[in-house]
Amino acid sequence: MADESSPGPAGAPVRRGSWRWGVGALGTAAVVASVAVVPQLLSGAGRTSAWDRCPARFSFLGRTHLPTRPGAAARLVPGEPGSAVICRYQRRMGGGLREAPARLVGSHPLPDVRSYAERADRLPNVGSGSIGCLYVGDPLADLVLFSYGDGRVQGLSVDESCKLVMNGRRTARADQGFVGLVDALVPSPAPPTPGLRPMTTTPAPAPKRTPLTRARLKAIGCVPSADRPIPVRPDPARAAATNRVWHRIETWLRAHAPATYATLGPPADPRRIAAVQSRLGVRFPDDVVVSLLRHDGVRQGDRAAFEVPLMYRPLSLARIESTWRMLCGIVRDMGDPSGTWWSGRLVPVGEDGTGVTLVADPAHGDRVGVADDEQGLIFDSREGWPSYLALLQATATSLESGRPVRDSHPRVDGSGALDWDFRPPRS
What we know:
The protein has 427 residues and is α+β, with helices and mostly antiparallel strands. The protein is built from 9 helices and 18 strands.
């Protein structure tokens, strides 16, 4: 990964400093050969590091790390950077759900930083969800690192094959003219020298995958067994506690972040909740049910949409069902019965836009963690919570006090939108 790589000798200097990290991940969908699903939005939080030049290797799929400044949800290049460097990489597409880290093949200072940033900000946004891309051979990709006077850095990932530009919180569609700006400064790797016999290799065949049988899918919870609606009867005490914490969150948002408050969805119909539980064969935790009865998710396509740390947007009932089916479909098509990164007995409750899903686990005391195709199921003290209610309580307390939740600090921008600024403690 980028934060584990040493600087490359060809890298141009980049201002050293600390910053908030955005995390991107491979969108959750089956991948065959060099057909991949690209994340629509890169967001989240990761580790910090000090970059003073282009890293020698960088991962554009998997858990991609981009340094991200506050304001990145509104603009691809927020603020006024003082300088920038272009890092050009050659990717190594091997098929499957993973890609080998790309190799640095060149770098160059960006001459007209302001003009490039303004042009990037005019690119049209890409909506939420995932899109597929066909990669031919070992394509090129670019990482543009913008440096600011306060020592922070904003990263911009430019996928030349898909014509996508991503900054850790936002994704835009580029045209060939925008991509060509980098091509004019950093040439592609030189072809083999005439007269020399090129070295040839036989590509490794893509691994053969056999879709799971119905019996094996049932064993990991992806074949529902319920044949009638599962009634919605949350425990009264749990319901009261969940309603209280939502009242605290709503009160704070209404007063301090009205743009985000406006993205909270209307109540879900309890009959629909019962029907979806039946179709998935999973009884939702009481705090999830009560949350849906209060707000059926948030407006996913709105940059001001409400998020809980670490930048997960609550899912609507429809998105819970579609995400559950999508993840079970991936497990089925990939022939992976291990259950190490997804089980049909889990309930998707949030997403960070990168393919990482916030999940509740009714089979283990309603705990909350993340399902990540790269890292697996994580319920540790960094990513997990005892319950969805505990996560909401931590969110409400952070909003009211201004204190961080696991190094994520609440802040409101000039438009009245809530954001979480990841600032790890200084060592």
